[in-house]
Amino acid sequence: MLFKKSGVIALMILMMAATFLNGCCCFLGAENGWYDISNFVMPDDSEFIAEIEELTAPWLIAAYMETNFEYQLSGCAKSPYLLWKTKKGDCNDFALFGVYVASYHGYDAYLVRIFFEDSDTRHWLGVYWEEVFGLYSYTSNQFFSYYVLKDIGGVVENYCKIHQKNWMKYEVYDYRMNLVEEKSK
Fold this sequence. Notes:
Blueprint: H1 2-21, H2 46-54, H3 58-68, E1 70-71, H4 80-86, E2 88-89, H5 91-104, E3 109-116, E4 122-130, E5 135-140, E6 143-149, H6 152-162, E7 167-173, E8 179-184
Parallel strand pairs: 1-2
Antiparallel strand pairs: 3-4, 3-7, 4-5, 5-6, 7-8
Helix pairs in contact: 3-5, 4-5
């Protein structure tokens, strides 16, 4: 009995430490440390499908997230469906949801992980290629940036300027979770 309790306590401490070290994003259990959105299968839930069908542009996705979701440190990445069901999540959950829905509607969408200077905190953005403008937009948590930028590096700079943070590295992943860009200062 003591060993079972010790194991549970050790696991809880490990999860709390991982949450603290990763800031708003804790990833446990996946090969690369996050939910692999490319393997997400649309659930057989007519209400979820109907709502996804209506969110045809990044700004609509963000407006939906802002109205319906609440930021809450979740500890582990949630699928788009689980975020929709629970209505609570953190930066990686919001980025995954936004990228999934935008990709569903034919947008080139990317997950961007930002590493900050002087901090172990990391942050995830959903970034969307707005073909009609020939520029990128992004969501941070449930909020949409109306700033459209020429490249993803500009998105990172814009986010950091607004939030008075300094980045030291960022990684860009496509919908298939392939690393497509990595930049360090």
